[in-house]
Amino acid sequence: MERKDVTLVGKLGEYDYNRPYVCSECGGIMIFRGVGEYECEDCHYRAYDDYGKARNYIEKNPGATSGEISERTGVSQKAMRQMLRESRLEIASDSKTFMKCGICGVNIRHGTLCEKCAASYHRLAEEQERTKRMLAGYGMDIKERNEGAMRFIKPDQNK
Ligand SMILES: [Zn+2]
Ligand SMILES: [Zn+2]
Question: Which domain of life does the UniProt lineage start with (predicted)?
Fold first, then answer.
């Protein structure tokens, strides 16, 4: 089970949504055209990855549920959830289905965190970054003072 998850997520945590690499018509190379769409460089046959399939279906069938999309397009529920987590899709505002915020558990319609938690998470990350920079700057300052400030250092020697 765990192994299968690792395979699905793939390298660098990116799930590739079953993107077509090779043309099913002529064996040519599929070129990315944007928003989940691919085109064969030889015969110009067009194909879609899971995101493109789901997106096309939603465009033609507004208000479709993820279960319906999955059933009609063959896109797995897991891929649907992944798209929601990556905010590629959003649960319609009149839907009774929700995702949960990863921190406070409140209902959300896309992504992994609610707006409040995302904002404070972002702030926390910024603060940590600032503290790190300040400490680094402070350390350098002390070092320079200890070495004495009388010497002029040419920029290219200041390494
Ligand atoms: Zn082709
Ligand atoms: Zn939250």
Answer: Bacteria
Distance 46 CA to ligand 2 centre (A): 40
- Hey, is 146 helix, strand or coil? helix
**Each residue's pLDDT tens digit, 27-73:** 999 999 998 999 999 999 999 999 999 999 999 998 888 889 999 99
What string of DSSP letters covers 48-64?
E-HHHHHHHHHHHSTT-
Q: What pLDDT does 142 receive?
A: 53
C-alpha of residue 85 to centroid of ligand 2, in Å: 14
Average pLDDT on 102-126 reads 93
Q: How far apart are CA 91 and CA 89, in angstroms?
A: 7
- Ligand closest to the CA atom of residue 20: 1
Q: Which residues contact 16 (CB under 8 A, 6 or more apart)?
A: 10, 49
Amino acid, res. 98: F
Q: Are strands 107-108 and 99-100 parallel, antiparallel or unpaired?
A: antiparallel
Residue 89 has pLDDT above 90, yes or no: no
Q: Which residues surround ligand 1, an ion (CB under 5 A)?
A: 23, 25-26, 28, 40, 42-43, 45
Neighbours of 70 (CB within 10 A): 20
Distance in Å, CA 122 to ligand 2 centroid: 12
